[in-house]
Each structure stands twice: as structure tokens, then as C-alpha cells.
Amino acid sequence: MAILRNKKLNAKRGICLNKDICAFAGLNSGDPVDVIAEDNGTVTIRRHSPKCRFCGDNVNAKNVMGIDVCPSCAKRLAKEVGANAE
User: Fold this and answer.
1) Which of 16, 33, 63, 70 has the largest count of CB atoms under 10 Å?
2) pTM for this predicted structure
3) What are the pLDDT digits (tens) for 24-34?
């Protein structure tokens, strides 16, 4: 089953998702979402899943200071920052 709603963009090109759509998708106020725009004009909104900004790992990535990063890239970053801090 799916829910379909016709929505218009507001003056700032935003939309407001209806409460029933959010409930159906399991989204709550403040939940992060990904907005994907395809070449064919399709726009998809889905629950955000952390994905490492550097290597693309989406299994172990965590959000640190607003950046999604996996443990191995975090170690590499710490090593690089530590080497340059001296």
C-alpha cells in the first residue's frame, strides 16, 4: 500500500509533508531525510541513512560534527590531523 498526495511548492520552493504521510513512513519531526533528484525529474524523499562522505560506507558510518564518517576514515583523518598538528 502507498499514499499519494498532490502538493504544490511554496514561494521558497519547499513542501510540507502531511502528518499521515509521515506516520505511514515512520518519520517524526526533526528526523533527517535524504532528497534525491534524478536526471529524469523524479524527486525522492527517504529516511536518511548515514553514508561516509569519504569512502561511501553506509554500514558503519556515524555522524560526527555534521559529517557522516566511517571508523576507518575517522582513523585516517585523526592520523592526518595529528601529523599536521605538530
Assistant:
1) 70
2) 0.60
3) 999 999 888 98
Burial 12-31 (b: 16+ CB within 10 A, else e): eeeeeeeeeeeeeeebeeee
DSSP strand pairing (67-69 vs 33-37):
unpaired
| Residue whose C-alpha cell is 595529528 | 82
8 Å CB contact between 52 and 69: yes
Measured between alpha carbons, how far is 46 from 5 in angstroms, rounded to an integer? 16
Q: CB-based contacts of 45: which residues, under 8 Å, 6+ apart?
A: 17, 33, 34, 35, 36
**Coil, helix or strand at residue 83:** helix
